[in-house]
Structure formats: C-alpha cells, structure tokens
Amino acid sequence: MSEVREKATLAKRTTSRLGALSTEAKNAALHRIADALIARAGDIVEANKEDLTRGRESGMSASLLDRLALTPQRIEAMAQGVREVAALPDPVGERLADIERPNGLRIRQLRVPIGLIGIIYEARPNVTVDAASLCLKTGNAVLLRGGSSALSSNRKIVEVIQSALAETDLPPDSIQLVNDPSRASVDEMLKLNGLLDCVIPRGGASLIQTVVQNATVPVIETGAGICHTFVDASADPVMALDIALNAKVQRPSVCNAMETLLLHKDFAAAHLPSFAEAFRERSVELRGSAAARGLVPDMNAATDEDYATEYNDYILNVKVVDHLDEALEHIARFGTSHSECIVTADEANARRFLQEVDAAAVYRNASTRFTDGFEFGFGAEIGISTQKLHARGPMGLPALTSTKYVIEGNGQIRQ
Length: 415
Fold this sequence. Notes:
The protein is an alpha/beta fold. Helix content is about 45%, strand content about 20%. The protein is built from 16 helices and 16 strands. It has a 7-stranded parallel beta sheet with strand order 10-9-11-8-7-12-13, with helices on both faces. It has a 4-stranded parallel beta sheet with strand order 5-4-3-6, sandwiched between helices. Strands 1-2-16 form a 3-stranded antiparallel beta sheet, with no helix packed on it. α8 links the parallel β4 (about 140-145) and β5. The longest helix is centred in the N-terminal third of the chain and has 17 residues, at about 25-40.
C-alpha cells in the first residue's frame, strides 16, 4: 500500500470517533496542542532552519522565504490561533432547521463533520497548524500534503501535534502528513474516492488549477489573489495612501495583498507622483499604464500579462482610469474573485462598487489585508474560498461541516 493510501486509511478510521467527541474534549486537545507548540518551539525553529537553508540554496525569493520562515514569535502566534479556535463556538450539532410535518414526523437538520479532509498546500508551515486546529475542532480528520520546501518544518509540527494528541481523548492518527514530495503523491490524493471526503488546495494559481482540473474527489476551491484597490476621485489622499501602502507592503507575499492600484484620473493628476515616491521608498517596483507613465515617466510599462499576475512580491501595477465603470471593467477582467477595495467619499460610487464587484470580500475604505480568518474573528482559517458553492471567503469552522437530516417518527409509513 502506498504512503498516501496508508495514511488516508489510518486517518479515515478515526472519523467516527472524532465525530462523537464532546466540545470539551476537542477544546482540551486544542489547548494541549497550543502548549506543546510553545514548549517545543525550539525544535520547530531548528527544523525550519533546514527548510530555509534549502530554500536559499535553491534561489527561493525573499518573499517566499518570508512565508516559509518560523520564529518563536510566529510559533507563539500560531499557538494563540489554536487557542482562539478552542474559544469559538463548536458548530457540530448546531440545529439549522426543526420541522414538524402534518403526519407527525419531526425533521431536524444538524451540522456534522465532513469526515476526512485533504489539504494540499505550499511553503507556509503555519497552514499545518491552522488546518489541524480547524479540522479537529469540527471533528474532522485531516490528511496534509505540504510543499517540499517546508517538509522538515511540517514533519516536526505534525510530530508535536500527534504527541500532544496522545495525551488527550483525540486519536493521534486523526492528523497525517504525506512525506512524499513528488507530484505523484498529489495525483494520488486527488483520486482517493471513498477515503477523502474533500480536498482543499492552498497556494498559487498553478497548484489550485492542478487540483481543480484533476481531482475526482470533491474540491473546495481557494483562489489566487489578484487584488485591486480603486482610489476614487473623492478619496481622502492620506487615507488612500495609508490603505494602498498597507495593502501592498505590509506583507506582499500573501494572497490578500494588492497587486494593482487603480486611480481615478483626477486623483492621479494630483497625487500619483507622491504615491509613486512613497512606494519607491519602500522598494516597490512600479509598472504603469500609459496614463500613469505620463504622470510618472520612469515607471516600467504594465502589460495585460502583468495585470493577470499574482506577484506575491514588491511589484505593483498602477493604472489610471477615467471613471468607476472602467475600474469595474478592469476588476471583472483581471480579478480572481478574492478581495477588492474602493477608497471613496462618494456614497453612490461606494454602493455601486460593493454591489457590482464579484468577489469573496469587497471593502470600502479599508485594506484588503483584512481578508483573513483571524481578522474576521474565526481564530484561524483553512483558506480563502473564491468559489460560490458551500463556502466563500475566509473559511472558518462552519465551512468545515456538512449537514445531516435526523428524522424521528412513531411508526409512519408513506402512502
């Protein structure tokens, strides 16, 4: 039996037990995991150093190294995220509907765990902890397949979690990590019908499309983040600059970072040169439309390929538009239905933008960087869903449940 199938089988065997556990038992296990992460932070950092060394030797970019890096502070934040999940209401068992039929049948719709969830992700070892905490809180087992660049970190984190679970009511086998870094392990996971109940990809557009196009198990699609900020003519320039800078440079390597800044032509005429200088002071390379380069001539030219690229780096497209309609058209063409923002004091334009933009998260006068499970109060997230079925936006606990109808009668038969 292959490693993938063996570990999926081990995890699947725990799902009935997991689904029957009390909220108290699950929360106690999560707190034990958080304690263990902090207690063994040194071991995790040492394992992470192996990944960082391999990353530097292979020429990994600074932004990707940042996503890969673990520090005691980041591990403490991961542990705090686990505690946040423990503090959240348990959706399992929640009654969504209670129907009494004329024939006396009582029908209840309840939230239940999905079962065994596969997570395929890349160079972010914090996803290992997020996935484990969210899945275990909702009574799901999880089969993890991280990227080869984070293999040492992920192995150590899973070892720490399994050791912590051995001291609780939760079975340690409920979390499994695929060690095989080859494409073959991904291909096998995508076709584990009968074992995996669903698979969730987290990463770049290439990974996500590979999963969506090749999986025979159900997929919850998380999307790439080509996010835009549109600064309207009426925008406060100080607010607009603060939001735009935060959206791009606060952490450019993540999916909710801005990739294209759209500026109304009147606003651009007055403020684009100073905006460009502020971005350059923060080492951001600017690529502009013809109108943008007319105001800031030393920008590189932006192409359609640039507008369709998720950089995850200190690179920003800048496009000057004539009106709101042009901004909406650009977002509809190049956006990935992730997170979009308008900075404006115009109520009518704000209303149109919020209603017409098709994205999981749409902002007025706030940075797209807030599209995050922790910032939304979910404690942690399994990913940002950009699809429209079952779950959309940051996926917290309810997104990791399905439903069950429980019907009680007293001898009814259908005529």
